[in-house]
Design a protein that fits this description.
By secondary structure, this protein is α+β, with helices and mostly antiparallel strands. The protein is built from twelve helices and eleven strands. α2 runs parallel beside α4 and α5 packs antiparallel against α8. The structure holds 3-thiaglutaryl-CoA (TGC) and flavin-adenine dinucleotide. 3-thiaglutaryl-CoA binds next to α5, α8 and α12. Flavin-adenine dinucleotide binds next to β3, β5, α11 and α12. Pfam families: Acyl-CoA_dh_1 (PF00441), Acyl-CoA_dh_M (PF02770), Acyl-CoA_dh_N (PF02771). This is Glutaryl-CoA dehydrogenase, mitochondrial. GO terms for molecular function: fatty-acyl-CoA binding; flavin adenine dinucleotide binding; glutaryl-CoA dehydrogenase activity. It is found in: Mitochondrion matrix.
Length: 424
């Protein structure tokens, strides 16, 4: 399926390139600030259709809910059901009710969701990349059949527990442990705490990374099983956040939680497990951040055309235009970089360092420019009704989770120099 998409894409690009060069010669090519490098010419018909339906859903159904969600910190779970109906959950997975799209299509969905809010994209990408992907990649046939179809529809909600109160950038030092139950055969006991976990207060399924005999292993913990059994599972929400307020974040406290052996990923051991999932999630974030930046440009442009000072719209002033031009340029470059890494990922040629590069650069640029574009709004930036401050505050967290930007610089630094800054 994915191979067919790539082959179709090659045909599509050559056809479009030909007609585009004909337009330039005829003097018909026009610059479109909303599509500066004609990204559409590099996408397959399927990717274009997915991107358009994602945009329509996000603008019509998500955008009207975002201000209320931000103010109340209430996450409306029905969103995940709606996304499931549209095939946006675990979209790259083949079978189990999933759409089987290209990696680029997954990125395009993330871009549209994050155009509305980074928190909504968080909820979606945790479900897709950090819950469904590990089950699909590391799970047994029984685990896949049991969990994937309901996660694909949003009937089950998942979360991913890697970060702990004392271990964020350095997950290899995690303290959460699993041990065989002393009396019940085929049962493990999980104890520890995970912190800052997207979706945890509302999750039905928890991917928990814990050390078993000193090695990191992945467990699928089910809330219904724990509630029915003996265990101590608590998932308190973290309230009064200054960012990502439209998504729900919490802790996971595990006190001797019983997990059956059939819920352990059988083969995968070590950090490779969680990081394989993060490769996909970080890739999606690289596109999501571009969506947020594009929205910041659109909002600032529109505001600058309406707001007059010194007798003219702000848009007439060079300093305002420079802010818009620099933000737009980095958004356009970011699209092309994510597109290329997505194509390489589908061909099996992408590396974690490439993903670190696009996660870091696209998010850093989106954060830098959205903060600059806040200035265009003057005092009105302080009102959430103008949305721009929400975008910038969210992007600070996006720069922090899934590997803070400096950590990605160190991953790249290690690849460039051969020296690891993480070991002494
Ligand atoms: P290191 O020696 O680099 O690696 C240990 C083992 O892991 C393998 N590995 C990878 N495998 C696949 N993909 C990757 N990207 C991989 N990176 C590493 C590596 O090959 C090795 O395997 P093996 O078999 O040789 O043992 O480990 P380190 O401890 O030196 O790592 C350091 C560092 C900084 C790279 C790493 O710890 C890191 O990336 N830290 C950042 C932590 C992070 O990203 N946390 C994310 C938590 S989840 C989250 O934030 C979700 S937010 C979701 C949302 O709401 O959208
Ligand atoms: P720390 O690791 O304490 O880092 C603090 C600062 O020190 C950073 O700037 C970092 O770059 C810097 N630093 C650390 N080590 C070094 C070094 N060696 N050299 C130079 N600088 C260094 N985690 C999950 O597992 N699942 C989730 O679903 C999830 N969702 C989240 C949702 C939200 C809203 C937030 C805020 C976080 C979420 N996280 C999640 C956690 C996130 O992944 C961590 O916050 C992130 O990995 C950073 O860890 P930390 O906060 O402990 O910061």
């Amino acid at each position: 399926m994915i191979r067919t998409v790539i082959a179709n894409n090659a045909k599509l690009v050559s056809r479009r390139q030909f007609s585009a060069s004909a337009s330039v010669l005829a003097g018909k090519a026009r610059f479109d600030w909303e599509n500066p490098f004609r990204l559409d010419t590099l996408l397959t018909e399927e990717e274009l259709a997915i991107s358009e339906s994602a945009r329509q859903y996000c603008q019509e159904r998500l955008y009207p809910r975002v201000l209320e969600g931000w103010r109340t910190e209430e996450f409306d779970k029905s969103m995940l059901r709606e996304m499931g109906e549209l095939g946006f959950l675990g979209p790259t997975i083949e079978g189990y009710g999933c759409a089987g799209t290209s990696t680029v299509a997954y990125g395009l969905i993330a871009r549209e969701v994050e155009r509305v809010d980074s928190g909504y994209r968080s909820a979606m990408s945790v479900q897709s990349s950090l819950v469904m992907l590990p089950i699909d990649t590391f799970g047994t046939v029984e685990q896949k059949e049991r969990f994937l179809p309901k996660l694909a529809t949003g009937e089950l909600i998942g979360c991913f527990g890697l970060t702990e109160p004392n271990h964020g950038s350095d997950p290899s030092s995690m303290e959460t442990v699993a041990r065989p139950h002393p009396t019940k055969k085929g049962v493990y006991l999980l104890s520890g705490a995970k912190n800052w976990i997207t979706n945890s207060p509302i999750a039905d399924v928890f991917i928990i990374w814990a050390k078993l005999n000193g090695e990191i292993r992945g467990f699928i913990v089910e809330r219904s099983q724990v509630e029915a059994g003996s265990g101590g599972l608590a998932t308190p929400a973290i309230k009064n956040k200054t960012a990502l307020r439209a998504s729900i974040t919490g802790m996971i406290q595990l006190d001797e939680v019983e997990v059956p052996a059939e819920n352990l990923f059988p083969e995968i051991k070590g950090l490779k497990g969680p990081f394989t999932c993060l490769n996909s999630a970080r890739y999606g974030i690289s596109w999501g951040a571009i969506g947020a930046l594009e929205e910041a440009v659109r909002l600032a442009r529109n505001y600058s055309l309406e707001r007059k000072q010194f007798g003219h719209p702000l848009a007439k002033y060079q300093l305002i235009q420079k802010k818009l031009a620099e933000a737009l340029s980095d958004a356009a470059y970011g699209q092309l970089a994510s597109l290329q890494v997505g194509r390489l990922k589908d061909n099996g040629q992408a590396t974690p360092e490439m993903i670190s590069t696009i996660k870091k650069l696209n998010v850093d640029n989106a954060l830098k420019h959205s903060r600059k574009l806040m200035e265009v709004f003057g005092g009105n930036a302080a009102s959430d009704e103008y949305h721009i401050a929400r975008i910038a505050h969210n992007l600070f967290v996006v720069q922090t989770y899934e590997g803070q930007s400096d950590i990605h610089a160190l991953i790249l630094g290690r690849a460039i120099t051969g020296e690891s800054a993480f070991t002494y």
